[in-house]
Specification:
By secondary structure, this protein is an alpha+beta fold. It has one domain. Helix content is about 25%, strand content about 10%. It is built from one helix and two strands. A two-stranded antiparallel sheet has the order 1-2. The longest helix is centred in the last third of the chain and has 19 residues. The radius of gyration is 15 Å and the shape is flat.
Length: about 80
């Protein structure tokens, strides 16, 4: 994405310190994600499977705003 300098990323106060983070560069590059339906678990765990596939891209997005990693609700309590 281009022309994103000063774009704000807003998080609920429950994660880290301030709840608004600004992007300081003019572009934002995120990794591609290939979602192959053959690699997905059954429909009961589909949201968890998708979240784990998207985690590297979400981490890159959070990193662009100066945050260490994306916190997914599926991982809360396990890692944090």
């Amino acid at each position: 994405m281009y022309a994103v300098r000063n774009l704000e990323f807003i998080l609920p106060d429950r994660y880290w310190g301030p709840d608004t983070y600004s992007h300081n560069e003019d572009k934002l590059v995120l990794p591609e994600v290939l979602i192959d339906i053959k690699n997905l678990d059954d429909s009961v765990t589909l949201p968890v499977s998708l979240a784990r596939m998207l985690k590297p891209m979400l981490d890159a997005l959070w990193n662009a705003f100066g945050l260490p990693e994306a916190i997914l609700e599926i991982d809360r309590g396990q890692q944090h």
